[in-house]
Amino acid sequence: MARCQGTVESLCQGLLDLDDDRFSAMCSAFGYLQEWPDLGAMCGANLAVPAVAAAAAPSAGDGNDSSSCSGSGGIRKRRPDAYLDAKGGANDMSKRPRGKQLTGLSEIAAPGKGKQERPKAGTKKKAEAASTAAAAAAAAAAAAGQKTDYIHVRARRGQATDSHSLAERVRRERISERMRYLQELVPGCSKVTGKAGMLDEIINYVQSLQKQVEFLSMKIAASNPVVSFDIVEDLFGRQLKQAAALPAMALPAGQLEPSCLQMSPMQQVHPSAAAGGSTGFGLEMVVNNLYAPAAASCPVSAAPSVSAAAGPSTIEPCLNVNGTAAAWDIGAQNLFSGFDAQFQSVESDCLLDNLKMEM
Amino acid sequence: MSSRRSSSSRGNISEDEINELISKLQALLPSSRRRGSGQASTTKLLKETCSYIKSLHREVDDLSDRLSDLMSTMDHNSPGAEIIRSILRS
């Protein structure tokens, strides 16, 4: 019986990908239909659905079933077998291994059951049915159909007793099937014994994977601007040298003072960027690289202005890469067109904000 | 029969544990989170877990590839790359 239900459920699983809830609902709906003859006449898939319903009904709602049951075991037994067979035949395609296994089990187990409960003709029938092919199964189903509803009820009642174990066995089987699959996916899972441990392992693994993904995407987000930094260096290294060579050198000390003042927002940017991570370092790199030639070629007072220019110019492409601030283009270009370009502290603040956002 | 009974009781215990873990697992899955807390069948959940783990694997691989690409493109700029590498390593 257990096997019967198992097969039934497995079939059901194969045919209908239903949730347990819907499954049981369907079962109860089907359970009281007295269409067995018709169904028996039908073959394969059609048969399977009611059979599933019958099998599932006990597992889902034992109360109903048992209340409506009046039990003589013989028929009860016979009937599930018939269904089993029918199902086994129909099922073979979808759940081959299990179907086979279950059928085999039913053959073996059927006698045992028969002994323990009441001796019945059913056992023999079971064995026969189990061994028969799909055609035979159809015939058996038809035979079962003749017995109509009262058999149906009994079958349920009979199943009610083992429904728990049956349902659980089926469920566990399904779970272990998936678990085996997951075992392949999750490293170290094969060492763990027991489903609970495995599930634990799986949960941990999923969590670690999630973290890993998060971490990696964070790294990439952080290193993306840094990558653009190569190009940036090429582009702005040239421009900056020009800028440092031409206007900064030409500028009188008085005009340089405002650009020195610009350093203060720049310096604010700096620590925050550095705290933010790689962008800050990239920024620092540029500043340092550019600082050296600028300092070499410029008066001392020009050096801060160069670094001030270098800062925003580096940041500008970074921001562009991330698609955050187009406004910065303007600011940086103004800067490059000459140091006299008014580099407002407002812009610097804006930059700061953008940078922070980016971080 | 007796073996069946014992297995069923064993099944009940592990079923509880499994249910507990399953709901934990369910919370981790984006799809089941979307669907709400309704108890999906364990099989379905495990199926989803399989596909989710696979997708996570794919994502991790993809991201690692991208990251290594980034790193390789940086190699010529050794000072910057080193700094960045040290940052990334942390």
TrEMBL record, chain A:
<feature type="domain" description="BHLH">
    <location>
        <begin position="159"/>
        <end position="209"/>
    </location>
</feature>
<protein>
    <recommendedName>
        <fullName>BHLH domain-containing protein</fullName>
    </recommendedName>
</protein>
<dbReference type="GO" id="GO:0046983">
    <property type="term" value="F:protein dimerization activity"/>
</dbReference>
<dbReference type="GO" id="GO:0051510">
    <property type="term" value="P:regulation of unidimensional cell growth"/>
</dbReference>
<dbReference type="InterPro" id="IPR036638">
    <property type="entry name" value="HLH_DNA-bd_sf"/>
</dbReference>
<dbReference type="GO" id="GO:0005634">
    <property type="term" value="C:nucleus"/>
</dbReference>
<dbReference type="GO" id="GO:0010372">
    <property type="term" value="P:positive regulation of gibberellin biosynthetic process"/>
</dbReference>
<dbReference type="Pfam" id="PF00010">
    <property type="entry name" value="HLH"/>
</dbReference>
<dbReference type="InterPro" id="IPR011598">
    <property type="entry name" value="bHLH_dom"/>
</dbReference>
<keyword id="KW-0804">Transcription</keyword>
<keyword id="KW-0805">Transcription regulation</keyword>
<feature type="compositionally biased region" description="Low complexity">
    <location>
        <begin position="57"/>
        <end position="70"/>
    </location>
</feature>
<dbReference type="GO" id="GO:0003700">
    <property type="term" value="F:DNA-binding transcription factor activity"/>
</dbReference>
<comment type="similarity">
    <text>Belongs to the bHLH protein family.</text>
</comment>
<dbReference type="InterPro" id="IPR024097">
    <property type="entry name" value="bHLH_ZIP_TF"/>
</dbReference>
<keyword id="KW-0539">Nucleus</keyword>
<feature type="region of interest" description="Disordered">
    <location>
        <begin position="57"/>
        <end position="128"/>
    </location>
</feature>
<feature type="compositionally biased region" description="Basic and acidic residues">
    <location>
        <begin position="114"/>
        <end position="128"/>
    </location>
</feature>
From TrEMBL, chain B:
<keyword id="KW-0804">Transcription</keyword>
<keyword id="KW-0341">Growth regulation</keyword>
<dbReference type="Pfam" id="PF23174">
    <property type="entry name" value="bHLH_ILI"/>
</dbReference>
<dbReference type="GO" id="GO:0009646">
    <property type="term" value="P:response to absence of light"/>
</dbReference>
<keyword id="KW-0805">Transcription regulation</keyword>
<dbReference type="GO" id="GO:0005634">
    <property type="term" value="C:nucleus"/>
</dbReference>
<dbReference type="GO" id="GO:0005737">
    <property type="term" value="C:cytoplasm"/>
</dbReference>
<dbReference type="InterPro" id="IPR044293">
    <property type="entry name" value="PRE"/>
</dbReference>
<dbReference type="GO" id="GO:0042803">
    <property type="term" value="F:protein homodimerization activity"/>
</dbReference>
<dbReference type="GO" id="GO:1900457">
    <property type="term" value="P:regulation of brassinosteroid mediated signaling pathway"/>
</dbReference>
<dbReference type="GO" id="GO:0006355">
    <property type="term" value="P:regulation of DNA-templated transcription"/>
</dbReference>
<dbReference type="GO" id="GO:0080113">
    <property type="term" value="P:regulation of seed growth"/>
</dbReference>
<dbReference type="InterPro" id="IPR036638">
    <property type="entry name" value="HLH_DNA-bd_sf"/>
</dbReference>
<dbReference type="GO" id="GO:2000024">
    <property type="term" value="P:regulation of leaf development"/>
</dbReference>
<dbReference type="InterPro" id="IPR011598">
    <property type="entry name" value="bHLH_dom"/>
</dbReference>
<dbReference type="GO" id="GO:0009741">
    <property type="term" value="P:response to brassinosteroid"/>
</dbReference>
<comment type="similarity">
    <text>Belongs to the bHLH protein family.</text>
</comment>
<dbReference type="GO" id="GO:0051512">
    <property type="term" value="P:positive regulation of unidimensional cell growth"/>
</dbReference>
<feature type="domain" description="BHLH">
    <location>
        <begin position="2"/>
        <end position="56"/>
    </location>
</feature>
<protein>
    <recommendedName>
        <fullName>BHLH domain-containing protein</fullName>
    </recommendedName>
</protein>
